[in-house]
Amino acid sequence: MRAFSYLPHPSRVVFGAGALQHLGREIEALGARRALVLSTPGQAAQAERVAALLGERAAGVFARAVMHVPIESAQEARREAQRLGADCAVAIGGGSTTGLGKAIALESGLPILAIPTTYAGSEVTPIYGITEGGVKKTGRDAKVLPRTVIYDPELTLSLPVPLSVASGLNALAHAAEGLYAHDGNPITELMAQEGLRAMAAALPGLVADARDLAARGDALYGAWLCGIVLGQVSMGLHHKLCHTLGGSFNLPHAEVHAVVLPHALAYNAAAAPEAMARIAAALGEPEAAQAPQAVQRLAARLGAPLSLRAIGMPEGGLDRAADLAVQAAYPNPRPLERAALRALLQRAFDGAAPRG
Ligand SMILES: NC(=O)C1=CN([C@@H]2O[C@H](COP(=O)(O)OP(=O)(O)OC[C@H]3O[C@@H](n4cnc5c(N)ncnc54)[C@H](O)[C@@H]3O)[C@@H](O)[C@H]2O)C=CC1
Ligand SMILES: O=C(O)/C=C\C(=O)CC(=O)O
Predict the structure, then answer these.
(1) Which of 88, 112, 211, 296 is the S-S candidate for 146 at Cβ 3.0 to 4.6 Å?
(2) Where does the record place the Alcohol dehydrogenase iron-type/glycerol dehydrogenase GldA domain (predicted)?
């Protein structure tokens, strides 16, 4: 057994269909008296339901979360939390809403109770992201890690199937890159492999029936494991490319992950054969070298977008994206070569088969 260190992030997790009923108990355990409930405009009704469950402990609802947390939205939410004298943020929604809670916590130290309704995984990471002047900056800070997470698969029944699929592939990406992370360890690898397996097994079920609660539960369980991996170890080329594409070209977060993952894995395949073997095994693919193809086949079978063209990437931006991808140093099993990355981006743009 190799030597390693592992420091679990301290969050309390309450999991199960109907788990939202425990909200009052969990808020009390946090010692919160005035919780500001956060959501996107589209989930305002869910936020109002949460506020009603909180009763006197609800300070108000701020239903204006926006993807990638623009600084203006963060500042508005921070002011609202202060104005209402909030002592806690309850975030119900996907990564955008959790991200808004994190932006508040980063400045004020307010505890967050997260109720995730997508598979993004932000609820179990100390990672925050804020977009200013068209540039998204991310960082890690223990202050932003939600103290409590309530996973209730019933709340994901309304997540549209295309978004469920893309978000599931976003989760797979955390686990896949976690398997070749330079700072990985046997525990994160176990979680990554089980997260991949659970998510890959659940997605076809919820595509067949969006209201299949068992499949929704398995997907949320997989998302949790994949999110822990994201929060524990360093991500590589794939996440870097997705942040560049999402932040600089305003592409939808989960869909970018869905398109790019097979291509980023193919780029790294020869440099990370053990990770490929684990990814392939988790997806039921007998040949380790076929892991990137297996991911793309799964995405195609689930009806996910397969090309950057289909999700709004301008072809004229591919050169700039390749330049940005090699600008900052970040850990990756294969060194970053601009020409090879430009070719990768072209294949992703065209929806071609992944190639190393
Ligand atoms: N800090 C971190 O660790 C992480 C941060 N993120 C960030 O999170 C953002 C993306 O989060 P996502 O979850 O992909 O999307 P999202 O939070 O933007 O949600 C996408 C859309 O789906 C709606 N939605 C969510 N759950 C729903 C449900 N159950 N029923 C109906 N509609 C629902 C939302 O209201 C929104 O309109 C990005 O900004 C990304 O960078 C993503 C992963 C990890
Ligand atoms: O950009 C952020 O807010 C932080 C991390 C992620 O989005 C992780 C991901 O790319 O899914």
Answers:
(1) 112
(2) 10-153
